[in-house]
Design goal:
Helices cover 20% and strands 32% of the residues. The chain is of the alpha+beta class. The strands form twelve sheets. The protein has a six-stranded antiparallel beta sheet, with helices on one face. Helix 4 (321-333) packs parallel to helix 5. It starts with a strand and ends in a 6-residue tail after the last strand.
């Protein structure tokens, strides 16, 4: 039987003539940090102090042990090397590599001695490729498009420039005889309730003449096939297979598949994975509104409630199985049912996709191309095909994976960002997205749809980012326009949109020791990576609240309110237009370090107010008030499997708390549908002193929607008055006046304190109880000091 021996311990990193202890998996930065050679790049402005690391060569070493006798072949297997490296054994070259996104295998049969992995600077490798193939335009000045490495290592508009090197995924020795399983490609489908599994197996042999068989088991069924040459196909049927569903639509049953390779009754190797039975389609049919982009799982058409995922750490080897699960549980807890793995990052580890399988989170997987023109010549073209083939097959078992996407914003960039003229006919990646990658997916994984890019309208006959066709990225809002302008269009699928806000207060305090934070303090400016990011934050505030000069706490609170308001404006509008709009994917779920960004969860894992707002926005049932045409409508968005019926209570109120007029109307929204009706004209608020309240029951939950006809800075809010009481595990606030956007910033009570809800608006006499965990010394005065809400304009 194949024997695998992890090579974890005993590694050293050579630095300035010293042998530093090294962790594998890991990277140069984490090893230097552990040895005290560099400061933490996430603290202060340490990022600048470690910039030299990415421009040096680095060497890892350890002894390659003698193996046990009795096996015919020994392979040295690297699951991931970052990025350009030469591998030597006692000074003898085993091979060279240049791709972070794939694995490598070297025959070391009968060998032992000093194993050396010598990494070139990623800058040097990229610049050498650029020198051979010529300049290609990109959104950023760093040369990330010239090598197959995590692009955001070179910095992004939310990420630090930390150009890594190292053995970032596991390494091991595999010892085997006669044959081993080289690759298994599982094609999993469902036909009339029967789960169909076709395992296409490839083997590597040491003896061509040996008779081999493969045996597969799944769901109580078993099948066997002979290996012909180096391949075999095993087919199994699972009667009455239980379907795997996205969260909110059903359960996520998973089946264990086991494949065994045998010779003359002796087992040689095995392969084990979990699968789920489901069908997936992408409906891109033209209709009266343009060209659709609707995911269909098990025949059910979905409005995708999505988030964009970036690498959860600039040093991906630090993201453990537990951390993946914690972050993805947060996503599921916010009502998310789709996670897009963005193209400037990596193909994530099995732990990520395992968690998505279990949680019912659909995965949209980008191929790693983002915001740049990528050369299509060698040495890149061969690497792109090799990595695509490996990762398509590696990820195929996961039922959560429902879509392959060719790139992020490169088709759009070619058309709109001035690339076409600068390229002057040079290759730029179109051959990957419209040729190579769809061919690889069609050949290897025909069970899943492929789309050429995001955004992409489906044809060069239309603008790549045409909102009426395919996927759309909405960045005019934030960059130039106010978020109220989300209502100006109804895209078919909004794959990126968002608004910035700073991280939690405790996160800033940890990241900026000794600095009193201000919007423009040195540490805060260092953590604003977006072009004119603070200017856009200020202009966004000025449209609604005005900018609080010299009051950081107020600025911090208002920017977080504005982020939640902006995302809510988009999602409420677009969800109310289902099925024309079939999904929203918020930019972004997570951060890789402490930074002002579009994330709902900051770099220390703390949840911003946006996170809690997503729980409301992505719930199965959402109540919203929307201006349409010349009037106001209410929309009851019902993504549940049961009709939503009941009474909708409408109240036109003054900001002083008086009910000016009210009415009750019948609420009806069919299953997986939206109910929309005009608000009676007499209930529409008039002027700055009035607003509309809509309340309805959704099962045991009371839902509310608010509509204010003018921006906050024009509303004569009363001075907020409320009472605060504290009990073990909770803070209760009772309003005496209108209290708008009340927020308990729990981390101001202590760095480990968490609250179970975010922004809430209370009418006079209403109360809210906020669950609090991790608070060791509760007190009403401390709670009141951590409570923020909107106040009268000054």
């Amino acid at each position: 039987m194949l024997q695998a021996s992890p090579l974890v311990d005993g590694w050293i990193l050579r630095h300035e003539g010293q042998a530093l202890a090294a962790s594998v998996p890991g990277c140069v930065h984490t090893d230097l940090l552990a040895a005290g050679v560099i400061p933490d790049p996430y603290v202060g402005r340490g990022e600048h102090e470690v910039a030299w690391v990415g421009r040096r060569e680095w060497t890892y070493e350890r002894e390659l042990p003698d193996g046990p006798s009795g096996q015919e072949q020994t392979d040295l297997v690297f699951d991931g090397l970052d990025t350009a490296a030469e591998i030597l054994l006692d000074g003898r070259p085993l091979g060279s590599v240049r791709n972070m996104h794939r694995s490598y295998r070297f025959d070391v049969t009968g060998a032992s001695g000093r194993l050396t992995v010598r990494f070139a600077s990623a800058y040097a490798e990229a610049e050498a490729v650029r020198g051979r193939l010529g300049e290609r335009p990109a959104a950023y000045a760093e040369p990330y498009q010239y090598l197959r490495k995590m692009a955001c290592s070179f910095g992004w508009d939310w990420g630090p420039t930390l150009v890594t090197a190292g053995i970032w995924r596991p390494v091991r020795l595999e010892r085997w005889s006669t044959a081993r399983i080289a690759r298994v490609r599982p094609l999993v489908t469902v036909e009339q309730g029967v789960g169909m599994v076709e395992l296409r197996v490839e083997v590597e042999r040491t003896r061509v003449e040996a008779g081999l068989t493969v045996t597969a088991r799944v769901g109580g069924t078993q099948a066997r096939a002979r290996v012909e040459g180096t391949g075999a196909v095993v087919r199994l049927e699972v009667p009455r297979a239980r379907l795997w569903w996205p969260r909110g639509y059903g359960e996520q049953p998973l089946y264990d598949v086991e494949l065994t390779l045998s010779h003359e009754g002796a087992d040689l190797d095995s392969w084990r994975r979990r699968i789920g039975f489901r069908t997936v389609e992408l409906d891109r049919r033209p209709d009266a509104h343009g060209t659709g982009f609707t995911l269909v799982v098990n025949g059910e058409r979905l409005f995708a409630r999505g988030v964009n995922w970036i690498p959860d750490d600039s040093f991906p080897s630090r993201v453990t199985r537990e951390r993946y699960r914690r972050r993805l549980r947060q996503a599921a807890g916010a009502g998310v049912d789709l996670v897009r793995v963005w193209g400037g990052g990596i193909y994530e580890s099995e732990d990520f996709y395992d968690a998505c399988d279990e949680l019912g989170l659909l995965v949209w997987q980008d191929f790693p191309f983002a915001c740049a023109a990528y050369p299509e010549e060698q040495p890149l073209r061969g690497e792109v095909e090799a990595e695509a083939r490996e990762n398509v097959v590696r990820l195929m078992p996961h039922p959560s994976l429902v879509l392959w996407n060719g790139n992020n914003e490169n088709l759009w960039g070619f058309r709109d960002w001035g690339w076409e003229g600068r390229l002057a006919g040079d290759s730029w990646g179109e051959g990957y997205y419209l040729g190579l990658l769809p061919r690889v997916v069609a050949e290897l994984d025909p069970t899943r749809p492929y789309t050429a890019g995001s955004p992409w309208s489906g044809s060069w006959a239309r603008h790549p980012n045409d909102p009426a066709h395919g996927t759309h990225h909405s960045w005019e809002v934030w960059n130039r326009r106010d978020y109220t302008e989300y209502r100006a269009e109804v895209p078919r699928f909004v794959a990126e949109f968002g608004w910035q806000a700073p991280p939690a207060y405790a996160t800033l305090r940890r990241a900026l020791p000794g600095e009193e934070p201000a919007a423009d303090s040195p540490g805060m400016l260092h953590r604003q990576k977006a072009d004119d990011g603070n200017g856009k934050l200020a202009r966004g505030l000025a449209r609604h609240f005005g900018v609080p000069e010299g009051d950081f706490d107020r600025w911090h609170y208002l920017t977080q309110v504005n982020q939640a308001r902006a995302v809510a404006a988009g999602i409420e509008h677009w969800r109310s237009h289902w099925p024309v709009c079939a999904g929203t994917v918020v930019w972004q779920l997570n951060d890789c370090w402490p930074v002002t960004s579009w994330a709902a969860i900051d770099g220390d894992g703390r949840e911003k107010p946006l996170y809690h707002e997503l729980r409301r926005l992505y719930a199965d049932r959402l109540l919203t008030l929307q201006p349409r045409g010349e009037g106001l409508v209410w929309a009851a968005v019902n993504q549940s499997a049961e009709p939503w019926t009941g009474v909708l209570r409408l109240r036109r109120m003054s900001v002083d708390g008086e009910v000016l007029q009210g009415a009750e109307v019948r609420l009806l929204a069919d299953a997986r549908a939206v109910g929309v009706a005009r608000v009676p004209v007499e209930l529409e608020p008039a002027g700055a002193k009035e607003f509309l309240v809509a309340d309805a029951a959704a099962g045991a939950t009371e839902l509310r929607a608010l509509y204010f006809p003018v921006v906050d800075r024009e509303i004569p809010y009363p001075q907020p008055e409320f009472e605060v009481s504290v009990a073990p595990g909770s803070v209760t606030v009772t309003a005496r006046t209108l209290v708008r956007d009340l927020l308990l910033q729990a981390d101001r009570l202590g760095p480990d304190v968490r609250a179970d809800r975010g922004l809430v608006t209370l009418l006079p006499g209403e109360r809210v109880t906020i669950g609090v965990t991790g608070w060791e010394t509760p007190g009403a005065d401390a709670a009141r000091a951590a409570l923020y809400c909107l106040e009268p304009a000054r």
